[in-house]
Amino acid sequence: MQSKSSRIAVIDIGTNTCILLIAEKIDGKIIKLYESTEFPRLGEGVDESKEISFQALQRLIKTLKEFTNIARSYEADRIYAFATSALRDASNKKYIISQVASKTDITIKLIDGITEAKFGFYGALYDFEGAEESEQFTVLDIGGGSTENSFINDALFLCKSIDVGSVRIKEKFFKDGINDVTLTNAKEFINNKFLEINFLNIEDKKLVGIAGTVTSLSALNQGLKEFDETKVHKSILSVNDVDILFNRLSRLTDEEILNLGSYMKGRNDIITSGALILLEFMKYFNFDEIIVSTKGVRYGVFLFLSK
């Protein structure tokens, strides 16, 4: 007889994206029924203003209403929504959560950077061969507002979250485009943030990347016009690949980047910043390559909820 979990809708509310995953677990395996990504960019301007704007709130509410209707159409037994960096940083987070609850009947769970990293780690690796020996991996999650790195040493889970993300770097340094000065300043800022985690002993591990920056770069590296999870999941990007992709993207306009592939919609103006963070991380910690996972935090949350 099959062992089957309840059907759960997980909503991941990030700085740039809002992702809906509807899944159930059968005999220990996650069966994805539906997945969709929207781009309300909740964290727009948060790095400077420290507040979620009214416009961003309205975009989020619209997205959550749509996701709720989809979850109900799939007869989900539970809807679980969680938020990360943008809402963590916002001084008006309590107001945003209350407004969302009153308008959508969804209560957002605000998770800290460590919890986010833990969910990301186990979600990224759940279908990787050798994941039971997960000490061989370290997981990198480049988000819109923050970046998490997580791994296991001597059976102890370790992670660090730093305030470096693709939206944050775009707004802080590249609002008016990339030039030698802004690029130098951005690199200095990013590498100074890496000083906060330079004690991490990760150089001998296999680097796995999750979230939109690495998945989009993999699709672009393969010349895809449409995102194909079967080709992106577990693909490999070398540091040289990332370097070439960054330099290519840095010479293009936002509109030109949008035309590279349908998966650039909603991230065409921040993918270059994300690529820079990835490139600097790989160089700083001496990684020759990164394995791409299309799973991540939402899958880790689902695994936790379906226990």
Protein traits:
307 residues; alpha/beta; Nucleotidyltransferase, domain 5; 6-stranded mixed beta sheet; 13 helices
Q: What's the topology here?
A:
Elements: E1 8-13, E2 18-26, E3 29-38, H1 46-49, H2 54-73, E4 78-83, H3 85-89, H4 93-104, E5 108-110, H5 113-125, E6 137-142, E7 147-153, E8 156-162, H6 166-173, H7 180-194, E9 206-210, H8 212-221, H9 229-232, E10 236-238, H10 239-250, H11 254-258, H12 271-284, E11 289-292, H13 297-305
Parallel strand pairs: 1-4, 4-5, 6-9, 9-11
Antiparallel strand pairs: 1-2, 2-3, 6-7, 7-8, 10-11
Helix pairs in contact: 2-4, 5-13, 6-12, 7-12, 8-12, 10-12
What does this structure look like?
The chain is an alpha/beta fold. The protein has 13 helices and 11 strands. The chain has 2 domains: 8-110, ATPase, nucleotide binding domain (Nucleotidyltransferase, domain 5); 130-292, Nucleotidyltransferase, domain 5. It is 43% helix and 21% strand. A 6-stranded mixed β-sheet has the order 8-7-6-9-11-10, with helices on both faces.
Strand percentage lies at: 15-25%
CATH domain fold name of the largest domain = Nucleotidyltransferase, domain 5
The secondary-structure class comes to alpha/beta
**Counted beta strands:** 11
Residue share in helix? 40-55%
User: Order of strands side by side in the largest beta sheet?
Assistant: 8-7-6-9-11-10
Mean pLDDT over the full residue set: 92
Q: What characterizes the major β-sheet? A: 6 strands, mixed
Write the H/E string, N to C.
Answer: EEEHHEHHEHEEEHHEHHEHHHEH
